[in-house]
Amino acid sequence: MMTVDTLTLQVMNTEFYLAIAKSNKTNWKEKAEKWLRYVAQEWSRFGTNNELWQLNNLEIGQTLQLSDDLYDCLVQANDYYLRTNGLFSPYLKLQLEQHGYNQSFPFTTIEKEAMYNQPIVAGNPFQFLSNQQVMKIAQQEIDLGGFAKGYAIEKLAQWLEAEIAPEYGLIDGGGDMKMWSSGEKIWTIGVADPYDVDKEISAIKMASGAIATSNRIYRSWTQGENSKHHLLNGQTGNVAITDVIQATVVTSSLCDAEVGAKLCFLVDDTKQQQWLEAICDRSARFIVKENQAGYWAMTGEKIC
Hints:
Layout: E1 4-11, E2 14-21, H1 28-42, H2 51-56, E3 63-65, H3 68-83, H4 93-98, E4 109-110, E5 126-128, E6 133-136, H5 145-164, E7 168-173, E8 176-181, E9 187-193, E10 196-206, E11 209-215, E12 220-223, E13 226-229, E14 244-251, H6 254-263, H7 269-279, E15 283-289, E16 295-299
Parallel strand pairs: 4-12
Antiparallel strand pairs: 1-2, 2-7, 3-6, 5-6, 7-8, 8-11, 9-10, 11-14, 12-13, 14-15, 15-16
């Protein structure tokens, strides 16, 4: 039986767990940790003088040359923004801050601030040029949020599978997962209760694929007399009004799953099906609504 090599670390306010088939390449842990800490430091909207901060602080008409990885991540996020007609948006930093999400979690209460004009949701606020250059063309700012984590996990998984452990492996970043297997390894993945992360309410078996979960309870707060959460409608900049408590999407790509999970809070069941079919050929989703038992729904013939 093949032995397992593991790594656990705390980064991005998340516990990461990596498990791969034992390899004679012993430096993989150092490289994996370096990559995840780089993303946490340089791509966070809460950082100052990092790469994302420099991009957000451009004047309209100015350009900035980015690192290859951040440029690629932003291009992919912008592609989902276009494909979802702006429902999913990486351009909501100003709107999140106005709703009170201007610091890292945990926090529960924000004093109601003086009223000011809501930032306008502008279409295509950044233009992607050649040579990893980006031009700011509207007064919007970027918050990659969970998409950055999904991208980082996906890229790390691709490297581990190709260079270190092609037999099997799994990366779990706070419930957002990417796993692979050459065929013998089958993973059993539990779906956590939205109110109790130590309790499982469903499970799925798979050899390879990705899972992303969004939950509007964990990142929620009170601003004045208003209850808020971190899931905004990209077309309006407003907090999503929905009876969905938690959405888990299973498919082959973690970036697809990240976007798909957020869409489950923004559209009704019928449109969820349409959007997921547009984003990924095959997927499954587990939806938990207020005062209801969770249920599975699928697109395509099989999950992965």
